[in-house]
Amino acid sequence: MTVSAATRKKAESLRDLIRHHNYRYHALDDPEIPDAEYDRLMRELQALEAEHPTLIAPDSPTQRVGDAPMSAFATVRHELPMLSLGNAFSEEELRDFHHRLLDRLELEEDAELRFAAEPKLDGAAVSLLYEDGLLVQGATRGDGNNGEDITHNVRTIESIPLRLVGKGFPRRLEVRGEVFMPKAGFDAYNDNARAAGEKTFVNPRNAAAGSLRQLDPRLTAARPLDMYAYSVGVVEGGDLPTRHSEIIDCLQKWGIKTCPERRVVSGVDGCLGFYADIGARRDDLSYEIDGVVYKVDSLEMQRELGFVSRAPRWAIAHKFPAQEELTEVEAVEFQVGRTGAVTPVARLKPVFVGGVTVSNATLHNIDELHRKDVRVGDTVIVRRAGDVIPEVVSVIESRRPKGSRRVQLPTECPVCKSRVAREEGETVARCTGGLFCAAQRAEALKHFVSRRALDIEGFGAKLIEQLVASDRLKNPADIFQLSKDELSELARMGEKSAENLMRSIDISKSTTLTRFLYALGIREVGEATAAGLASHYGRLKNVVSASEEELQKVADVGPIVAARIRAFFGEEHNLEVITRLQEYGVEWPEADPVELAENGVLAGKTFVITGTLPSMTRDEAKALIQSAGGKVTGSVSSKTDYLVAGEKAGSKLSKAEKLEVAVLDEGGLQGLVSESSS
Ligand code: I6G
Predict the structure, then answer these.
(1) How many other CB atoms are found less than 10 A from the CB of residue 354?
(2) Which end of the chain is more exposed for a tag (fewer CB within 10 A), N or C?
(3) pLDDT digit string (tens) for 546-605?
(4) Is 232 in the pocket of ligand 1 (CB under 6 A)?
């Protein structure tokens, strides 16, 4: 079938439009259109290409996952070797590096060298070759001289353009950078893999490298990968600027993603300042890093400095303290959580890792424990990244003591001796004791008093455990029957602390429906779901009486969550506790949903959410705002009251600043909701 000129033109203009939106989304982090509109454009192009297959070009945005699985990777010889970097593990080593630079360049001690500085991502190095602006080859670093041809896989990474945008790029341009799996994608991938009983990735670096080395590109396409470019290799048929930082700016301009944290700094003090700044914000970055890299910015100086063995003399990686260390497993114990989940925990010989001393590490669940086959006496690698719970990464099997035995799941609860059971298809084993189990009671009570729930200040974990052990606290309602006299007689509780705690208990009685629902500790009902329920129903009795079907109309509530909510309110003893709590004076403002939209604390206020928030997804933040009667829109205008900005906020933040719109971070939003509703 011949294709008309008009159809051809239509396909080309759709491709250009999609490429433009890819550039806005990936390279600039500033999308112009909603995802649904982008999907519509893509579907339109796919339909057109399906109808007229001769229209399909290899650089069409539809052609990312076109290739069939391969049987092996071809070898790619790097035209210019892909080098490695020297390391500095201390300030002293960095100062030595700086001295060596000054010596070689014959500069004075006080000369201020300019460095291009950026975080060192924990991923896999890749080379991308563009010819006439088209991506023609992707390769792994390999041994630096020879890598593997992973063209079919890099093509599936959406942030890697199949065709450069703009003008002025060299005819042949090799871009080098790091492919990585962002933290959120890594966690979600591992959670899913764990739930499906499949192998998890040890760290984001292995995740990135493993994903790139898939013979079937569809598997790579399903992995949440991203890439930041950090240098160029082959450059032919065109000129690039004379400073490294400007070259990276050009790549950004041509649609290649580069790290938004990169800066140009001056002298060794500038480098140290950058290291300290990135180090302080490391946990908030959306990707894992293991240090920062400094490069002499002037290419002329780079040429003068040259290379030593396989590393450039003009660059160095300044590493953060190790986040993985070796230690020994002294015991494996099982902990019982709020929902009865029986979790294996490794008790470790204390070890300093990632800036703190670690003596416990989670083993997640029994399948994970068996997969890693962690045994008492084993030498293990322990990892602690940021404020994440430390975990056992793997066992050094060659150091296993003779006669060690596999750890088994206990058949009865270590606390209440009830049966431990595992539901069909669940990875988690649970104690069947329910609130008969002191561990579950204590955890449920700790949750009830926690800051985001009823927020009873001064009600610490130890105190709860003590009161549960003596059977004084059986459920949350018992908290409101405690007296100052009995509290002051407890261990480590003076008269004054008892008085303060009584006051906190009293203050906590005035709460919000969201907090109350969250405090109940219904399985699968986190803060955002509680906020969604509160804003949808407005009154507790409506939530209690809602059917599973009705519940699923609430944002974020699917069949599983709806069933959990129904099951909770279907239990007579839960309803009794709620009645008692209300009798003791726990109360919150109630309103019909319509009234709430008019009278909620954020009623009449318009919000825009941008960037990555530290602990909430954007949907969760949206549900929270709506639960208080606020409205959430997509773009900043003079009608916006607040911009809630997280990491990588991009152009919405600049626009808000220009329009003098108030900017909040996640804490600010929570403060606004709870301050005004407490
Ligand atoms: O492994 C690397 C990570 C980051 C690098 C690198 C980098 O720049 C930010 N730069 C070079 C030149 C090399 N490896 C060889």
Answers:
(1) 19
(2) N
(3) 999 999 988 778 899 999 999 999 989 899 999 999 999 999 988 887 666 677 788 889
(4) no
Report yes or no: 333 and 422 within 8 Å, Cβ to Cβ: no
Q: Which residues are catalytic?
A: 120
> What 3-state DSSP class applies to 94?
helix
227's enclosing H/E stretch is strand 226-236
**Residues 174 and 233 sit within 8 Å (Cβ to Cβ):** yes
* Length in residues, the chain: 678
3-state secondary structure of 498: helix
Query: Which structural domains are found in the chain, ordered by start?
Result: 5-55 (1.10.287.610), 102-319 (3.30.470.30), 324-399 (2.40.50.140), 432-595 (1.10.150.20), 606-677 (3.40.50.10190)
Q: Residues 184-210, buried b or exposed e (16+ Cβ, 10 A)?
A: ebbeebbeeebeeeeebbbbbbbbbbb
- Number of the ligand 1 atom closest to the C-alpha atom of 84: 15
Which pLDDT tens digit goes with each residue over 220-261? 888 999 999 999 999 999 999 999 999 999 999 999 999 999
Distance 185 CA to ligand 1 centre (A): 23
What is the distance in A from the centroid of ligand 1 to the CA of 658?
36
Which of 228, 293, 305 should be mutated for ligand 1, with most atoms under 8 A from CB? 293
Substitution candidate for ligand 1 out of 176, 230, 256, 265 with most atoms within 8 A of CB: 230
Lowest mean pLDDT among 23-37, 293-307, 333-347, 461-475: 23-37
| Ligand 1 pocket residue status of 83, Cβ below 6 Å | yes
Question: Does the C-beta of 85 come closer than 6 Å to ligand 1?
Answer: yes
Segment of 30-44, 228-242, 312-326 carrying the highest mean pLDDT:
228-242
Q: Is 446 in the pocket of ligand 1 (CB under 6 A)?
A: no
- Quote the pLDDT of residue 677: 44
Count the Cβ atoms, other than its own, within 10 Å of residue 502: 16
Which whole number is the average pLDDT over 14-43? 82
* DSSP 3-state of 610: strand
| pTM (2 d.p.) | 0.57
Q: How far is the CA of 117 from the centre of ligand 1 (A)?
A: 11
Give the whole-angstrom CA distance, residue 130 versus residue 236: 11
Say yes or no: CB of residue 118 within 6 Å of ligand 1. yes
> Distance from the CA of 126 to the center of ligand 1, in angstroms?
11
Number of the ligand 1 atom closest to the C-alpha atom of 259: 9
> What phi, psi does 232 have (nearest 5°)?
-120, 155
The residue nearest atom 7 of ligand 1, judged by CA position, is 230
Q: Distance, CA 208 to ligand 1 centroid (Å)?
A: 16
Q: What is the DSSP string of 104-122?
A: HHT--TT---EEEEEEEES
Residue-by-residue DSSP string for 358-421 = EEEEE--SHHHHHHHT--TT-EEEEE--TTSPPEEEEE-GGGPPTT-------SB-TTT-PBEE
User: Which ligand 1 atom lies nearest to the CA of residue 293?
Assistant: 9
Q: What do you get for the CA distance between the two ends of the chain, in Å?
A: 69
Is the CB–ligand 1 distance for residue 152 below 6 Å? no
**676 has a pLDDT exceeding 60:** no
Q: How many CB atoms lie within 10 A of CB 667?
A: 11
| Ligand 1 closest atom vs CA 83 | 15
Q: Which helix (H) or strand (E) holds 177?
A: strand 172-180
Beta bridge partners of 217: none
